[in-house]
Write a structure and sequence with these properties.
globular; alpha/beta; six-stranded parallel β-sheet; 13-stranded parallel β-sheet; 27 strands
């Protein structure tokens, strides 16, 4: 069958209830599956959609502050991309990317997570309510913490996560950082975290719940729960070369733990979030969005495993995912996810945290890779 012309594609979307503000300034590529663009979504002038994985759910707004390009990304119900570029990403309900955002593969924003303007993200997960300021570059991170829209983890404007190590033949990116955690963060009971602005963090690193890192510094050390943390600037003037350094056991362990958190998050989406979804054609966008998130998490784990193999300079066996049953009673329900989370009793939360933590620990144990103990 001959593909529909651009005009016919836009007419088809308009006729089924998509609000195409100005067809003259809207482009929907013929690779887009039109049944994945849902009635009630809004395509502002300058919107460009492409790729068969692209999904725009009811109430989603694309380009409400300027031109926006969306490639193979799922934009959930009432989510927004003000302007900029999103590829290989998933935005859940009411999450927002501010103007001039640059969002690349492996980026997941959960419900009501948001960024201000000019934020670049790649291989980065923001759990519910996490807020990023402006002029931020954050790649290879998982950020959680907080309980609500008013009590949320925040990263101040001007922050950079340094995710590249320069030594070796071509450097490496075995540098993921964990702010908060998946097992505790999913249940929205933990204290928020604040990462000070005009600052940076050298990965791989960890920051605990309830902690503050002071603005205007480079964080190189792990930060425990409930700390205020500041580091003095380093003074170094030594001989340097780009020759390889030997891997260190602590760095490898941090990578394994990080992937374990991704495995726990994948299990949460597969065994909790997807199982809770009610059926019905009108809600098919919910199933598509959660499935897109699961596929994204699979890709995130493979990205980290590949980067770890490059760091170790050898092939690694296939990832082995733990198969640990979920202890929570899960049934399809029309209750929104965040409302359901908040309704859980303390014993259910405790059981859920323990389950997810067991996945993290089991993953790190069963996928252990050998290394020496010299520092890097």
């Amino acid at each position: 069958m001959k593909p529909l012309s651009l005009t016919d594609r836009l007419d088809f979307l308009s006729n089924k209830g998509v609000d195409v503000i100005d067809p003259r300034q809207t482009f929907v590529d013929d690779t887009v599956l039109l049944d994945r663009i849902f009635p009630g979504s809004v395509l502002f002038p300058g919107t460009r959609l492409s790729g068969p994985k692209t999904l725009v759910a009811p109430g989603a707004k694309i380009g409400n502050e300027g031109p926006a390009t969306v490639v193979d990304s799922a934009i959930g119900e009432n989510a927004e991309i003000a302007s900029g570029y999103a590829s290989g990403s998933v935005l859940l309900a009411k999450s927002k990317i501010g103007s001039n955002g640059h969002v690349r593969a492996g980026t997941l924003l959960e419900e009501e997570a948001s960024t201000a303007h000019a934020v670049g993200l790649k291989q980065t997960i923001l759990t519910s309510f996490v807020t990023l300021g402006s002029l931020i570059n954050c790649c290879d991170c998982l950020i959680s913490g907080g309980r609500s829209r008013k009590n949320h983890t925040e990263v101040g404007s001007g922050f950079i996560h340094f995710n590249y190590t320069p030594w070796g033949e071509s450097g490496d990116k075995a540098t993921p950082s964990l702010v908060g955690s998946v097992p505790r963060g999913m249940f929205l009971r933990e204290e928020r975290i604040f990462i000070g602005g005009l600052s940076g963090m050298v990965g791989p690193n960890r920051v605990g719940f309830g902690s503050i890192t002071v603005a205007g510094q480079i964080v190189r050390s792990d930060v425990a729960d409930s700390r205020i943390h500041s580091e003095a600037q380093r003074v170094i003037d030594e001989h340097w070369d780009f020759g390889p350094r030997k891997p260190s056991a602590p760095r490898v362990q941090k990578n394994l733990e990080y992937i374990g958190h991704l495995a726990a998050l994948r299990a949460w989406y597969l065994l909790v979030r997807r199982q809770r979804l009610p059926s019905g054609e009108a809600l098919s966008h919910l199933h598509m969005t959660i499935d897109a998130a699961i596929e994204l998490l699979d890709g995130c784990m493979m990205e980290r495993w590949t980067r770890l193999a490059q760091f170790l300079d050898r092939d690694l066996p296939p990832i082995r995912l733990p198969t640990i049953p979920c202890p929570l009673s899960i049934e399809p329900s029309s209750v929104p996810h965040l409302d359901w989370i908040k309704s859980l009793a303390d014993d259910e939360v405790s059981a859920g945290v323990g389950w997810l933590q067991e996945i993290v620990d089991t993953f790190a144990l069963t996928n252990r890779v050998g290394t020496d103990t010299s520092s890097r």
